[in-house]
Amino acid sequence: MSVRKVEALKTKQANKKSSLQEDELAAYAFDMLQSLRETCSDDRHRFLSYLVGMAAEEAQRLAEGLPSAAAQFAKEPAGTSVSKKH
Q: Measuring CA to CA, which residue among 50, 59, 51 is closest to residue 32?
């Protein structure tokens, strides 16, 4: 096997390991956030519970391998414009 192929294989394996670790981190964060959300469920902390719930939903998406919901808010690629109707 050539040196380039070996290096490419090593890089691919390293990326695979790092994405697996990210998924595990997101799953752990989801579990922790769900527990925290339940703790904040009284009337005084209703909005805090909502915010923690939103973070839990994002963690769940990432743990399942889905893209971040933040991608919806990314700027559009250059050269594309959206016409507005008035």
A: 59
**According to the model, what pLDDT value does residue 72 have?**
80
**Distance in angstroms between the alpha carbons of the first and the last residue of the chain:** 62
Q: State both tokens at 78.
A: 């250059």
Tokens representing residue 62 in the block: 């990432």
**Hunting for tokens 């959300």 — which residue is that?**
37
- Are the CB atoms for 29 and 22 separated by under 8 Å? no
Nearest to 49 by CA among 61, 34, 59: 34
CA 46 to chain centre: 24
Average pLDDT over residues 44-72: 93
CB 22 within 8 Å of CB 59: no
Q: What is the pLDDT of residues 6-55, one digit of tens each?
A: 565 555 555 555 555 668 999 999 999 999 999 998 899 999 999 999 99
